[in-house]
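re: ur question from yesterday

yeah so i grabbed the chain u mentioned. its 222 aa long if i counted rite. heres the sequnce exactly as i have it in my notes:
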Amino acid sequence: MEGVILMHMVNEFRAAPRELSQPTDLMGAIGVRMAFAKDEEIYGQGEATDFVYRLVHGTVRTSHFMADGRRPIGDFYYDGELFGLETRSQHGLTAEALSDCIVLVASRKALIAAGGDEELRQLIWKATVRDLDRAREHLSLLVRKSASERVASFLMGLADRCCDEVVELAMGRQDMADYLGLTIETVSRMITQLQSAKVVEFKSCRQFRITDRDALLDMAAG
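ran it thru and got these structure tokens back, copy pasting raw so excuse formatting
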């Protein structure tokens, strides 16, 4: 995948060289837009961390593939978010497009050349702090909350990210189960219970709206 990205970036820069019109936004200034189809790998576990990514549109999933076949999910990324910024020389997770995605891609070397090593360190620092905060919340969810509380917290978090009444679910039940440390059957049962209690309403398997926000908040809090 890295070779494909590099070739695409080389061709893009040859076809349309650009100047740094927005020096305070290095990714926006030098990043190359790339399209990834649903379920396509963006970078793989163990690949070199040579590139930095910003999601323009869509949803991205990061996950760790284990020898026994398990696939814990690290996080989900949404419009405008940076990902792939790791301090190690190799990616510890695989990133895949959960939906058709547009991603800004820039090499670390290009970022350093354009804005200096300090700019890249700032990007890495901000992304690391954000990911650590999310990881702490995720761990607390897995360790301290019941199955119903985990599902309620997950749906509440998605709704808080969305500005619309109807929330689009990019991930399926299996992705939710892997992220929440539950079985797909348990996730489906918890969602059915929330619908029966008229707390949420699923218009389809990938769309829902909250019908009783206070009740969902209470369930998420435990």
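noticed a couple things. The chain has two domains: 2-142, 146-221. also The CA atoms of residues 27 and 94 lie 21 Å apart.
anyway ttyl
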